[in-house]
Recover the amino acids of this structure.
């Protein structure tokens, strides 16, 4: 573990004067920001607030402008992150299918225990539609839920994404980066959760 930032005020005053030279640099702002961060790392100086803000803006811009010769969903950091968000959305769809399947089983058991239970026509129609839909496999049902959304794929694709996310969730060495706040996602030029398409089957079980 590295030692903490030094606390000698005299030395810190000198360091902050040195860092201020980088802050006032306008011709090569990006390089100056990187140099200032390197200075803090080398001399064990806790970076001032202006430098933290500048470094955050610089990293965000670099991520957005990242160029690569590779193609596909794993071509760049943002592309990989965007793919991971889709994988997570598909994993969520599988969890939703399982929740609906459990709820359907509970309704079925309740109706068996009380065959004279008074239910509305709309509930009966919804229950029948849900029963027919659930005759398919879990991944097939999840693919149907995803129709009309950016994360839509076939059942085979849902299965692959589900397995990837399960591996990430159960193994700390596979870090998941899909849970960043919406404000940060907007800075990266990505959709936040409120902008996600609802899909064409959101009202699947309405009568």
């Amino acid at each position: 573990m590295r030692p903490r930032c030094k606390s000698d005020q005299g030395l810190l005053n000198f360091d902050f004067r040195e860092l201020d030279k980088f802050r006032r640099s306008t011709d090569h702002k990006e390089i100056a920001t990187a140099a200032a961060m390197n200075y803090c790392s080398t001399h064990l100086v806790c970076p001032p607030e202006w430098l933290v803000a500048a470094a955050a803006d610089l990293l965000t811009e670099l991520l957005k402008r990242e160029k690569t010769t590779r193609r596909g969903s794993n071509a760049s950091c943002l592309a990989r992150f965007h793919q991971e968000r889709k994988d997570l959305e598909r994993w969520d769809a599988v969890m939703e299918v399982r929740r609906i399947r459990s709820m359907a089983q509970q309704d079925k058991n309740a109706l068996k225990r009380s065959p004279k239970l008074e239910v509305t026509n709309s509930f009966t129609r919804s229950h029948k539609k849900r029963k027919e839909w659930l005759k398919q496999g879990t991944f097939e049902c999840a693919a149907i839920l995803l129709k009309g959304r950016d994360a839509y794929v076939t059942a085979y694709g849902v299965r692959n994404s589900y397995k990837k996310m399960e591996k990430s969730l159960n193994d700390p060495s596979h870090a998941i980066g899909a849970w960043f706040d919406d404000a940060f996602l907007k800075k990266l030029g990505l959709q936040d959760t409120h902008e996600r398409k609802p899909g064409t089957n959101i009202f699947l079980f309405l009568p």
